Amino acid sequence: MSKAWVRLATVAIICGVLGFSVGLYLSNPFSFEDLEYTWTAENLFNEVLERIGDVRGLAPSSDTKLQVVTLGWVEENWGACHNVEEIQVMEKIYKALFIIPENVDLLEVKSRQTGCTVAAASENKVYVVKEYFNPHERGKAIGILAHELTHVIQGTHFENSEPYSHDGKQAWSALIEGDAGLTAKKYLEQTGITPEDFQDFTGYDPLTKLWLFPYQYGESFVRELFEAGGWNEVNHAYLNPPETAEQIMHPEKYLKGERYVEVRVQPLNESSWNLVKTDRLGEHFILVMLQAHLPKGEALKSAEGWNGDNLTYYENKEGYNLFWKILWDTEEDASEFSNSVNNLMLEVGAEKLKPNLWKTKSQQIKLETEAEETLIIISQIDSNNFISELKNSQKKEAGNAPYNVAS
Questions:
Q1: Is the separation of the CB atoms in 356 and 367 below 8 Å?
Q2: 229 and 313 fall within a common domain
Q3: Res 200: pLDDT
Q4: At 318, which CATH number?
Q5: pTM exceeding 0.90
Q6: How far apart are CA 253 and CA 35, in angstroms?
């Protein structure tokens, strides 16, 4: 079984997923206050460890331990584990799609996020951060411990099959975080503690909304599975995991087995362009991008009807080219999205050069719509060459196949 699952929780809400291994923390001699804190935390931990299996129907390993660490230890051991190159690429893509402003440093934001960790689980160990985890707040502390022990259960009984794409990772994370959230609530209910309602997500910035997707939607998804067939249905989801954020946001689509269409993009000339990233972003990403600048109702309506997508990002010494092909269930869905892209361009102050072609200070944006397909093209190169090269490189293939994936 794969047990190398690390789950992190934040101060106000459970937040973020970073995959890396953690080592043992060997503390300095504790003061009396430290000893009392550790004794209280361990007693609470052992209480939850003993009973969590009765709630979830699966038990963590009996040798599961609690480890108290400090914020300084977290920053030293986990803060340096970011994939800097990947973060820098995602920063460029987020800025190109108007999700974050030009002055945002994504690596700095990620580092601050790591510094807000409350608790984590890895293999047969649960970590709690002394500065943020208060064992004297019994209900809240029990909920956190039950949540993290559920991650230990997952690592003990199920394979970690986290996929490559952003969309797939969001779906997988929503399953495991939703399972942990529902288990923690059911544990609290069975011990006579009223669980706190999860907080409203509407006030968060786009980046935080992307990171919090597993917590915003995961628990309601897993609850649908539980109501359909109890823990057996939830356990089966680890063998047949949800593939898309769409399935998480609309659980009935997962239960009916509704999937998505693989999208392929015709590659650019490899001698002129370096393929940096290709990814499937999903319905939720589209929703967040639109909602960053448009009313929530319009964003929700325009993101629905997603049927698959591929974003392919190239760089060379002149700049970048980004191609984002999205398939929709119907022509109406494609038209609604296209209208929202036009509205988004107005909101961000892009200069309209001609219908479905805009320019900002740093890039050109082109939108193409045909039947159930839309293609967004964003480039830093000269506008005339830009249009010419796009027409030469982005030719639709014969038959019903979408565009070829660059590999």
A1: yes
A2: no
A3: 63
A4: 3.40.1000.70
A5: no
A6: 50
